Amino acid sequence: MKLPSYLLGFSLLAALLSATPPSAAQQAEPAQAEPAQAASDPDDPSEAPATPAQAGVARFKVELSPDEITVGDRVEAQLTLVWMGPEPTAEPRFPTWQETWGSAEILSTTEPESFTDQSARRIYRQTLTLTAFEAGDVKLPKITVAVPLADETLDVTHDDDVSFVVRSVLPDTAGEAGTEDAAAPGEEEQELLPRPAAPLEALNPNQRFFWTLGILGVSALVMAWLLLRRVGAPAAAATQRPLAPPLEELLQRLRQLDPSVSEPAHTGLSLVLRNFLGRRLAVRAVESTTTEIQRLLRQTPVPPAVARGTIRLLQDCDHVKFAGLNVTEATTDDRLLKARELAREIEEALIPPEPPAEVAS
Predict the structure, then answer these.
(1) How far apart are CA 262 and CA 353, in angstroms?
(2) Structural contact between residues 265 and 327, judged by C-beta atoms closer than 8 angstroms
(3) Is the dihedral of CA 243, 244, 247, 251 positive or negative?
(4) CA distance 82 to 117
(5) Nearest 5°: phi and psi at 121?
(6) Domain locations in the chain?
(7) What span, in angstroms and rounded, lies between the C-alpha atoms of 132 and 71?
(8) How far apart are alpha carbons 361 and 358 in whole angstroms?
């Protein structure tokens, strides 16, 4: 069948149009679709640069040990930040902890530490010690660690919910406690009522009671008599024995002190020197403070230089007695020798001058 000439011309024109190359707009459409497809493939090296969070350079987790405790026990919370991105410009900032984390109490915190593992990843870690005093499930709110970078600060938050369980040390019901008053299955629990007060009963002491009371009374009297006799005997002996002169007594008691033991030696030195001043100056030096003794010495004929040396020695003894200052054996020995010299100078200052001898005419 022979086609008309105009139909043949239309067929040739349609064939030419179908063979025409696509336009620039048609060519751009596939090119615009390719990046979207590449972005969905994380292994494609041609993907566009992503933010650190999208690139997966940080992982933050919180681990609890143990995750179940009784009331008042301790839980160790370990906060670990695994960093696989560019070097931060400063150390990551962990939360500023106060006294609680949610409903849990914070007992202690450690300073964040950092190290590098075998995979060249930077690890930042902080440990907290927690506790709780209310039974139940204790949920800890999510926290964020700020990582400062060159162009931004990245906030990293852990994804998993963190909680631990607190068990009560008390049973919930009487049946759990194993008591005999637990209600049987199917029976209703009855309210426990206190028993009425028991009537007063008169004691009926028998003969054995009076014998025991008498023996205890006699024993107490005998023990009191023995104690008074033991305490009174040294006091009576002390009153009968005449006291040595003040300077001689000081020298005898100083020789009994051991300079190798700092605190007892200084305590004894202070007491011996105060006793000497009290007897020689007729003042209550043993019961007085060092400052009060200083005021008393100003009213005596003791030379000012000797008085200052005495007060300085008493202050050195006070430092050892009350402040716990530890000194060497050589220093203690020097202070014992200084006490002897000061006592002799005080003794000489208080000796009344001898009257002038009469000149024979």
Answers:
(1) 39
(2) no
(3) negative
(4) 10
(5) -95, 145
(6) 54-167, 246-350
(7) 6
(8) 9
What is the residue type of 229?
R
Distances (CA, A) of 188 to 125, 182, 191, 192: 55, 10, 10, 12
Distance CA 291, CA 315 (A): 9
CATH superfamily for domain 54-167: Immunoglobulins (2.60.40.10)
The pLDDT tens digits of the residues spanning 108-161 come to 999 999 998 888 888 999 999 999 988 899 999 999 999 998 888 889 998 888
261 C-beta neighbours (distance < 10 Å), count: 13
Side-chain-side CA neighbours of residue 312 (13 Å): 9
**93: β partners:** 146
Prior bond of 66 cis (ω within 30°): yes
The token duo for 243 is 């006291």
- Residue ranges, the chain, pLDDT below 70: 1-56, 170-192, 203, 233-242, 352-361
**Type of residue at 285:** A
Q: How far apart are CA 179 and CA 249, in angstroms?
A: 75
pTM (whole model) above 0.70: no
Q: Which residues contact 319 (CB under 8 A, 6 or more apart)?
A: 325
The pLDDT value given to residue 43: 42
Tell me how far apart the alpha carbons of residues 209 and 337 are, in angstroms, rounded to a whole number: 65
Cα gap 310→293, rounded to integer Å: 10
Q: How many CA atoms lie within 13 A of 318 on its CB side?
A: 11
d(CA 129, CA 49): 40
- CA 224 vs. chain centroid, Å, equals 49
The count of other CB atoms within 10 Å of the CB of residue 158 is 18
By C-alpha distance, which of 44, 27, 26, 24 is closest to 35? 44
Distances (CA, A) of 203 to 34, 103, 200, 206, 209: 106, 56, 10, 9, 11
